[in-house]
Design goal:
This protein has 10 helices and 8 strands. By secondary structure, it is an alpha+beta fold. Helix 2 (40-47) crosses helix 3 and helix 5 packs antiparallel against helix 10. 35% of the residues are buried.
């Protein structure tokens, strides 16, 4: 959530400071970005909150077991992880439907197969199948990462109307907003829509030399998730891209038996289930 600092506008009216609930939400949002441990300096850098304010809230959240504190910094506590486990249970149907497709993708290509869902402006990875190759791709089951940084996320954001994308990303932390290039992102999403929902990141675009491709799982009410394939080696996209699309469509068939999917290559309706 964007930090609102007090300032004087043209009418010399003071803008109210964020409420306690807003500041607590800002801090918890940082822990939802995928980093397991954060120091006080990390939290202040991401949220823009004063050091004393951040420390006071972190201490109170630790006392109430929303966070834990150890030598490596702060991390989510038992209360937060308990809520997360309840949320994971709501995804059991998606995980179950995608399981066979993910395993077959990995077996056929040797690359790492992922299942992700959109939660606000982040992608939550529900599954990762990669065997020995898993360590070459920096993702983890349960991890949450900025959607615009992953092919799964871009495939899902492309299923949304541009106004919804702007709305979701508007609650990013201050540091994320400074580095986010919305015009560039919208150009990328438009390109994905022209590619019928297929999102591709080449090894040349990735600092770690990873090639990745993703396709959304489309249901009656929009995209419910996305399947991706990633590998350190240069993937033969002309071969693996149709496989990823097929895996996504097959997962949708298992999830929604009897529902007639839109013709291959159509994003219809253009909405995703963003939680």
């Amino acid at each position: 959530m964007t930090v609102t600092q007090p300032y004087l506008d043209e009418q010399s009216e003071r803008v109210p400071r964020p409420s306690v609930v807003e500041r607590v939400t800002q801090i918890l949002d940082v822990f939802m970005l995928g980093e397991e441990f954060l120091m006080l300096e990390d939290v202040t850098a991401f949220t823009g909150l004063p050091r004393s304010t951040a420390f006071r809230i972190l201490s109170q959240l630790t006392e109430l077991n929303w966070l834990e504190h150890g030598p490596r910094g702060f991390s989510l506590g038992t209360r937060a992880t308990g809520l997360a486990s309840r949320t994971r249970n709501t995804y059991d149907d998606v995980r179950g439907a995608a399981g066979t497709a993910l395993n077959e993708l990995h077996a056929a290509t040797g690359a790492v197969a992922h299942l992700g869902v959109l939660e606000g402006a982040r992608v939550h990875y529900l599954d990762k199948i990669g065997g020995a190759a898993s360590g070459t791709v920096p993702s983890r089951v349960g991890g949450r990462f900025p959607a615009d940084h992953t092919v799964c996320g871009k495939a899902l954001l492309a299923c949304l109307v541009p106004e919804k994308v702007d709305s979701l990303l508007s609650v990013s932390t201050t540091q994320r907003r400074r580095t986010l290039d919305l015009p560039l992102l919208h150009n990328q999403l438009n390109s994905i829509r022209r590619q019928h929902g297929l999102a591709v990141d080449s090894a040349e675009q990735c600092s770690m030399g990873i090639t990745a491709v993703a396709a959304p799982i489309i249901g009656p009410n929009g995209a419910v998730g996305a399947i991706s394939l990633a590998g350190k080696q240069a993937l033969p996209l002309d071969r693996v891209a149709p496989m990823v699309v097929h895996a996504a469509r097959r997962t949708a068939e298992v999830l929604f038996p009897g529902w007639k999917q839109p013709r291959a290559g159509r994003l219809n309706p253009p909405v995703a289930r963003a939680l």
